[in-house]
Amino acid sequence: MRQNAVRWTVATFIITFSLVGAQPGTMTKVKKTASEWVDKNIKTIQKASKTVWDYAEIALKEHQSAKLLSGMLEDAGFKVERGVSDMPTAFVAEYGSGKPVVAFLAEYDALPGLSQKVKTSIDPVMTGAGGHGCGHSLFGAGTVGGALALKSAMDRHNLKGTIRVYGTPAEEQVVAKVFMVRDGLFDDVDVCFDWHPSSKNRVSVLPSKALRSFEVTFYGRSAHASGAPWEGVSALDAVEAFETGVNLLREHMPTTGRIHYVVTDGGGAPNVIPAKASIWMYNRAKDWPEVMKIYRHVETIVKAADMMAWGEEYGNPKSGFKPADINMLTGVYEYNHNHEVAKIVHANLSLMGPTKYTKAEEKFARDLQEAFGVDVEGYHTEVEELNLDPPRESGGSTDVANISWVTPTAGFGVSNWPQNIPAHSWASTAASGSEPGLKAMLKACKVLAFNAIDVMTDPSLLEPVRKEFIESVKAFDYEPPVGPGVKPGLPSHMRE
Fold first, then answer.
1. pLDDT at 496
2. Which residues are paired to 95 by β-bridges?
3. Are 61 and 34 in contact (CB under 8 A)?
4. What's the longest Cα–Cα distance across the chain?
5. Distance from C-alpha of 466 to C-alpha of 341, rounded to nearest angstrom
6. Closest of 485, 489, 479 to residue 288, by C-alpha
7. What H or E segment, with its residue span, contains residue 467?
């Protein structure tokens, strides 16, 4: 009798351990359920991605894409709230109950002017139209696929916890997540798992730059540019004076600072002195305090440019003077990477391994690389080792960074694009809509689901995660970079 009891106890332990408590990177019955769901629904997931790729909707206009992705979740039993944080194309979809609350992120905005067919030569679907050069068609559908795979495992194995999918539009303008974090939508999240299409299979803990995005509009007074230019005050002159002042500032900025801009409105015709002109600018730096130090200097240059354009009429409303407007668009912090979350993600990315490509798929990669003029190396066919001591500076910025200051966050990439193909190019647009790109996305679906399964089946994994997070924010009092009165928006030339 005792021997039978021992056997029963051991058997129970083995069965239980196969469902719960296994180390990240271990294949369990629960993970097999999620993996099998992805394998059985390949066509559905890939069709969703290809449809979003075809829509190619740009920032805050992703109506069809958001409807498709949120609808897939809703049809599967997720509770969906649309139009969150004053963005019609944003949504939050939730399934399950209780702790832990696990967040997945979905992006689906395209880039202006990157329309491209799935070809190895430049051939836009429609000249000047949008295209998924950053792979957000893969991103959005891959995240939804991962969430649905996780749901299948939760249902079958009675997992406790909540999965929440955040539909985040306008990532290219670093908009949605900034306002969602400000509005408290991540306040009860225990961990956030992110991913992004890439040319590499890796978990990255590279730093990112903090960023402040704003548009300055100067006002002048119209006049005939040849007949009576002395009667006019050129708003475009003010823009140019502002540019000159900012460019002189560069010498005195920290080496980690960056400033870049485009003129969004330079007037209507050469023979009319512009009464209005606008410039859209990014200030970036290694962290938010450094960004604000640069920005405060830039603010003084705005006033100086106004004074230069108006001269003795500056400040006199009777002359038609109107001070320049500074329209704060968005702001992101530097990324607060959580190494303990990164270890969980890397274990599951390594468990899945790299995507295996056919000879035809490798030929597509090599032809694309040759056409784009980069080294011909095919697809990345290994998983990089996790490097927790990366370089201390990076050039990019992301709105995921704001999430990382309110909940532990980490992300990964898979090889949807051939090596050396840069994002935001016609070639990455082609790769994002290709069969090998869609194939690699399926790996991301599984890794996302596996990450969540690990923390749902063994919540103790979150103890070191939380400990690291608390330590990382101890000396940092997070304040939203956009105030309560600021609504999500775009620079003037991108509005309808």
1. 67
2. 163
3. no
4. 110
5. 9
6. 479
7. helix 462-472
